[in-house]
Amino acid sequence: MRFDTKIGIVVRDDLAAWQRLNVTAFLASAVAGGVPGVIGLPYEDASGNEYLAMFRQPVLVYEAGAAAILTAHGRALAREMQIAVYIEDMFKTGHDEANRETVRAVAAGEMPLVGFALHGPKNGVDKVLKGLRLHP
Fold first, then answer.
1. Signal sequence: where (predicted)?
2. What is the mean pLDDT of residues 31-54?
């Protein structure tokens, strides 16, 4: 199936494995919670057990160095795309309110980004993420 939109998540390539997974999970939840229509219907197995709904389309995960992430983030902002961010200081907080305060304290061009997610038209997302490599 072809989709007109794309979901991309970028994580910094020097993070520990647990950090990459954590950042990816948090950023995916932002897209799921913030973009209407990206979640499909709940699942059910042949035994009648019900399961939570998931994204209706693939999520592509990329990795990049800090400078490349900041550049791509700037392109996403310039295109006014729907994005979510995760910065280094969020590893030190323990709750959502503190996370929002850490982001609010830093200007966009100075964010110590460890990752960001975006959703938008496929060609726009491709232009924002151009040059980044898919996570192995």
1. none
2. 96
